[in-house]
């Protein structure tokens, strides 16, 4: 019974963290991406070349896929 309760606590913690980070990081990053693309007339691929923070995130994804 303790294991089942622990799984519910872990699931609730994950959902809270996910929602918090989505609101604090995800939505502002999406807004920045959309606004820059709209103002500069750049497409989705062009946005990766404009902002250095997208270069870092792209390299992290590539490293994660390697390991």
Q: Can you put this structure into words, describing what you see?
A:
The protein has one domain. The radius of gyration is 17 Å and the shape is flat. It has 3 helices and no strands. With 67 residues, it is mostly helical.
Quaternary organization:
single chain
The largest sheet is: none
- The structural domain count equals 1
Strand tally = 0
General shape: flat
Distance between the termini: 36 Å
Structural class: mainly alpha
Helix fraction, binned, reads: over 70%
Rg, rounded, reads: 17 Å
* % residues in beta strands: under 5%
Succession of helices and strands: HHH
Brief summary:
The protein has helices at 2-40, 44-50, 52-66.
Q: Could you list some keywords that capture this structure?
A:
flat; 67 residues; 3 helices; mainly alpha
Question: Which helices and strands occur, and which strands form pairs?
Answer:
Blueprint: H1 2-40, H2 44-50, H3 52-66
Helix pairs in contact: 2-3
